[in-house]
Specification:
Its cofactor is Zn(2+). With 348 residues, this protein is α/β, with parallel strands linked by helices. The chain contains eleven helices and 16 strands. It is globular and about 65 Å long.
Length: 348
């Protein structure tokens, strides 16, 4: 095996660099993976555009991946060289205040337990992720599809928080990858009508292909009025916000019927303040829920849904690019030209 590899580094907002760096070696409990596919992500895009509290530059970049184990450290028993694998980008400690209370996604030590650097030829997977959140993948599941395990695990936690009942109308704001996965999950949970709300008509067409019953472009119409028109004036039973702006957070609450649940999936820049109609929230008994990250259980659930095909991620991949085009790929995402791109390190 070669001694060096190429990898993309985050140097700060608006700054990426492709570097030649040593191939990592596994410590006890760790594995080294040859990355077959990484996928671009909205979180990476936000970090690239404006910075992110979890991204401490200079640092290796990227966090969604799948590949093949090429080396294992001392004590690793569940994996061997040649295994096809994928993993989440973190794993909880299991012992802190929140882990003991069934909220591992809020682990007090989470910031030190992330793993970055998937836009690279090789990746070191730390022992705590190997032991909890790394999984083998079957031959029939492509590396590109398997790389969705982390974002899908986040979508699963979101849909679990939504408390969808059989026959519900669910409005999903945002037609990026998260919104498109949540459409499929809402249907799986028993929603009778899923309304997809976005801007780009092309993405909304994909939403229809993946199960949305109605689509609304905010370029064409008032989304709140349109949702109420589709629900006899009430509003949606459940609203999921997956677009990522203060305006769409407000929109989510506005289109919720009395006694509805609103799940705020997308993060906003630190310090952002959002105003809501207190009369609507209080007298109409609106439940607002924040949701963050994933759990070991939702990682497992995501893998099973990818393997079974219950969630179809293929239409979300708009093309493939080499490592040297990651920065332009993120800019293409920002312009809504693509949904996600598969980064294939073997391409040159």
């Amino acid at each position: 095996m070669a001694q060096t590899m190429q990898g993309v580094f985050f140097l700060g907002a608006g700054q990426l660099e492709l570097r030649e760096v040593p191939i990592p070696q596994p410590a006890a409990g760790e594995v080294i993976v040859k990355v077959s596919a990484a996928t671009t992500c909205g979180t990476d895009l936000k970090a690239y555009k404006r910075g992110h509290k979890l991204f401490k530059p200079p640092m290796p970049f990227g966090h969604e991946w799948a590949g093949t184990v090429v080396a294992v450290g001392e004590g690793v028993t569940g994996f061997k060289e040649g295994d096809r694998v994928t993993a989440a980008n973190s794993a909880p400690c299991g012992a802190c205040y929140y882990c003991r209370r069934g909220k591992p996604q809020l682990c007090l030590h989470l910031e030190s337990r992330f793993n970055w650097g998937t836009y690279a030829e090789y990746l070191r997977v730390p022992a705590h992720i190997v032991s909890i959140n790394m999984h083998k993948i079957p031959v029939h599941l492509s590396f590109v599809e398997a790389a969705f395990i982390e974002p899908l695990a986040c979508a699963v936690l979101c849909i679990n928080y939504a408390d969808i009942a059989l026959g519900d109308t669910v409005a999903i704001i945002g037609s990026g990858a998260q919104g498109l996965m949540q459409i499929q999950l809402a249907k799986a949970m028993g929603a009778s009508q899923v309304i997809a709300i976005g801007r780009a008509h092309g993405r909304l067409e994909v939403a229809r292909q993946l199960g949305a019953d109605e689509t609304i472009s905010t370029l064409d119409t008032d989304a709140v009025a349109a949702v109420k028109a589709l629900t006899e004036g009430r509003g949606a039973d459940v609203v999921i916000e997956a677009a990522g702006s203060a305006e769409t957070w407000q929109m989510a609450a506005q289109m919720a019927r009395p006694a509805a649940t609103v799940v705020l999936f997308s993060g906003l820049p630190g310090g952002t303040q959002v105003s809501f109609d207190a009369t609507h929230l209080h007298y109409d008994e609106i439940t607002l829920k924040g949701v963050f990250h994933h759990t070991p259980r939702t990682v497992e659930q995501a893998l099973h849904m990818l393997i079974s095909g219950q969630v179809n991620v293929k239409p979300m991949i708009s093309g493939t690019i080499p490592l040297r085009e990651v920065e332009e790929g993120l800019n293409r995402m920002a312009r809504s030209e693509v949904i996600k791109l598969a980064v294939l390190p073997e391409l040159h």
